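explain this:

___
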Amino acid sequence: MMVPNFPNMFMLYGPNSQPLSGGTGLPIWYQVWSSYIAQLVVKMVENGKSEIDVKEQAYERYNVALDEEASSLLLLQEEGAPQKNYYINDWGRLQMNAPWYGPEFHRMCTNVDWDDIEIT
């Protein structure tokens, strides 16, 4: 939902945003993501600050975890034809969906790790 060095910019639907499984439809995810963003904005306003950003190391850690989780998906295996697959980009990375099961992704999008956030 956030990219370092773009303070106050949130993406509700972007790369790796919708989980591959989990049973809930996209409108529910909009609510989950909006709630996460609201927690951040409320904290920023309560502290009298004007900018909120994700720390670079949190962003990098998330992407390593994403690639590791995605590596076992059929979409990235030779049998899944990644070179012809809409879900895989030119660099062999999962570009559309989040590789986690719905409940785990929900936890990640619900609980703010305040150590990963910079409010100034």
